[in-house]
Design a protein that fits this description.
By secondary structure, this protein is mainly beta. It has three domains: 99 residues; 75 residues, no CATH class; 179 residues, no CATH class. The protein has three helices and 31 strands. Strands 16, 17, 21, 22, 23, 24, 25, 26, 27, 28, 29, 30 and 31 form a 13-stranded mixed β-sheet that branches. Strand 19 and strand 20 form a beta hairpin. The longest helix has 6 residues. The protein is elongated. The N and C termini lie far apart (80 Å). 28% of the residues are buried.
Amino acid sequence: MVLAQQEGKVGKPTGVSLTIYNQNFGVVKDRRKVELANGRTMLIVEDVAQQIDPTTVHFKSLTAPNAVVVREQNYQYDLINPLTLLNKSVGKRVTIRQNLGNGQQREVSGIILAPVTAAVAQTGEGGDGTSTSYNGLVIQADDGKILLNPVGEAQLHEMPAGLVPIPRLVWLVDSAQAGEHEAEVSYMTQGLTWRADYVVVLSADDKLVDVTGWVTLDNKSGATYENANLQLIAGDVRRIQPPAGLGGGRRNAEMMKADAAPAFAEESLFEYHLYTLDGTTTVRNNEQKQMTLLNANKAPCVKKFVYDGRTGFWGIFNPDFRPGEQWDTSNYKKVNVIVEVKNAKPSLGIPLPKGRMRLYKADSKGSLQFVGEDEIDHTPKDEIVKLKVGDAFDIVGEHKRTNFRRISDKEVEESFEITIKNHKSEEVTVSIIEHLWADWRITQKSADFVKRDARTVEFPVKVPKDGSATVTYTARTRWL
């Protein structure tokens, strides 16, 4: 039995909730008034995101959930444009108006036999206006001639069925309760993402930082969300399709460091963190929006210098052919500058979403200057945030192997010398990182070291101002 159906009235959203993930998708929920008849009603909603995932759409009556059943759900996205209009009109009449030059025109009418593959704009002869070349279009004119790829302005005599001006959702709903219902529509959409951007201002002695966190929203979903209740999810949520990236703009550091009340409240959700906006906001299509996430003043930090003399070598090293007499004297001289911030109370101590941290420091005139940046991953409270912000100008390192001796086919002995030169006017401490391999044992050393992992040791060395310090060690390595 086929039930009679009528189109029900659908109101504008009365409340929008928007949850955005930092993986280029979001969940949209809105409430709106709908009119349902007894029996079957067709409901049409047009103001949805163009990047909607139609498999995630859910419709629910909040007024009488047990009295309303969705029988059919459709997402219609065959949009009106010149190509679809012509291609949906195969077998129907069309008129092509053509410019002949000198203001002369003619019209050719006929039946469309084959659809358009491409429409290309052209300038008329002598600059006499513009027209369109309809590549692939085949027309049988009224005089019997066949027109191929005609040029001109196409005029259809009727609107083909099945096309819509904008994407829309269509439901066929059976209701046992007629009248006005409050309904909830929810769906997932691509094109929504967010990230955190941080401005970190170092104190004069490099021992404290002020941290301002900003949320950067990017909406390319194809919809505007008016007065939305906004929530953000921080964490790596598994989805089948790979996430897309977020293009980013920058704000002026002086603007971003200004004190502002954090706009979001944070809480745990499953194995992630949820940030809820205090109040509502409008997120417009094709817009980036920045909002305050956090402000922290006088958080303790430590500036460290690290020299890893085999950084360049180690990246291309193949253990199958090491060691050999030709390896392990490095020309890499850079000493990295690392700033470590403890994400702990009383100044910080909150989960930090992944994002970019930009460091600034005031010059002698009090103007902030950019000194480096680094990306951080999602960082729980009470963890250390490590930022590699650049390389020291006045500190250089030298790494060389001074001796190599093959004890047997499966054992070698190597000696190394690492020199740090400090051209600053103050003493510095530099952490020298050395990489070992297989079954190693340091047999001689000029300084104490700390074993960081199975293949890494660290020599902390104090280097006097305008001076140098040298570390030597010998290691024996065996392998099977």
